[in-house]
Amino acid sequence: MSDSSDQVAEPYVMNGGEGAFSYAKNSYFQKATTSDLKAMVDTVIADHLEITDVSDPIRVADLGCSVGPNTFQAMQNVVEAVQSKLSKSNPGIMPGFQVFFCDHTSNDFNTLFMSLPPERPYYAAGVPGSFYGRLFPDSSLHFVYSSYALQWLSEVPEGLVNKGRVHCTNAGDNVCKAYATRYRTDMSTFLMCRAKEMAVGGVMVLMMPAKPDGVPLGKIPICVMYELLGLSLMDMAKEGKVTEAQVDSFNLPLYITSPSEIMQLVETNAGFEIVNMELLNTLSRYGGQIRGREIVMHLRAGLEGLISVHFGSGIIDELFDRLARKTEGSGSLVDMTYSKGNLMFLVLKRK
What is the pLDDT of residue 341? Predict the structure, then answer.
């Protein structure tokens, strides 16, 4: 049965299909994360996941699965790690596995399931809906995974006056506070819902962009890109290709959290304990230099739908061409911001 927390806004999703600007073709940063952090996830499962009844299926959920293929690799890794754990603790007994691929109702589930691996050690199901609401029955999940999804807010904070900007990066205090308040509300709801849905001893592994405490957003790579996107739109406004009013009324529903914020939220929600929380340096995973156009293609796959609804699709090619030029011109700035950890690896265990 649903509850009031199901009533959340439906945001825009990643570009579907398999075209040049699709998420499936432009999610290599997420793919690198899945590959490089596999050993950490394996260790979490081996050391902390508790499964008391092996007669029931093991239920795993990927929250924010998008359209693949990264979710399939991540879920394969999780299932194999759980199988390895159970084969040692319960030799000769192996339960079935159910994997739930969860994303918004407007997600391209057709592309997702057309590319579902035919040989897989689990039964697959799609679960449409926002993870800022209930998605599963009480105490039904053993393992929850989410990668590069929890930076999305349920909606843009209300009543923003953010002239000439599209994000809280380098914005005024009121704008920054509005974003932080919206994030706290959303994340509190997320934790409350998962606490009801997860079995005792279950584990969540959450990976999301983050920043060290005390480091301004303007020093965080993805926030640099948001700032450059806003500058590109303002350049177009000066040329009459969009209006300044359109830019002023457009804000990205994205938030970069910090360890202190997460600790406070988890402490407030009595359902979980923090098993591990690390800020990881992403630059080493991509082999050093990252080209500006790669970052722009990644952003376009995630933001094109959102921007098109507000400004119209006719500006998209020019906007991202401008953003690519600005990014290449600011390469040293973007690279510099990678010097500190900017990906949070968070492990929560259901009490």
Answer: 77
Q: What domain range includes position 227?
A: 15-350
Tokens standing for residue 220: 């965080």
Burial annotation 104-132 (CB, 10 A radius, 16+ → b, else e): beebbbebbeeeeeeeeebebeebebbbb
Helix, strand, or coil here: 270? Answer: coil
The span from the CA of 66 to the CA of 123, in Å, is: 18
Q: What are phi and psi of 324, to 5 degrees?
A: -60, -40
Residue 278 in domain? yes
Cα 261 versus chain centre, distance: 17
Closest among 194, 63, 71, 69 to 138, alpha carbons compared: 194
For residue 9, tell me if it sits in a domain.
no
What tokens were used for 38? 């596999």
Asked, for residue 1, whether it belongs to a domain, the answer is: no
Number of domains in the chain: 1
The pLDDT tens digits of the residues spanning 203-245 come to 999 999 999 999 999 888 889 899 999 999 999 999 999 999 9
* Cross-strand bridge partners of residue 283: none
Sign of CA dihedral 288, 13, 24, 327: negative
- Which residues, including other chains, have CB under 8 Å from residue 42's CB and lie 6 or more apart? 77, 81, 84
Instruction: Give the torsion sign (CA, 183, 186, 190, 191).
Output: positive
Is 8 within the bounds of a domain?
no
Of 327, 317, 318, 255, nearest in space to 294 by CA: 327
The contacts of residue 231 (CB under 8 Å, 6+ apart) are: 326
CA distance 136 to 200: 15
Residue 61 and residue 146: Cα distance in Å, rounded?
8
* CATH number of the domain where residue 325 is located: 3.40.50.150
Using the structure block, give the residue that is written with the tokens 């035919």: 118
| CA separation for the pair 35, 282 (Å, rounded) | 13
Dig out the tokens for 338 from the structure.
Answer: 């990678």
> In the structure, what pLDDT confidence band is assigned to residue 8 with cuts at 50, 70 and 90?
very low
Please state the pTM of the whole predicted model: 0.90
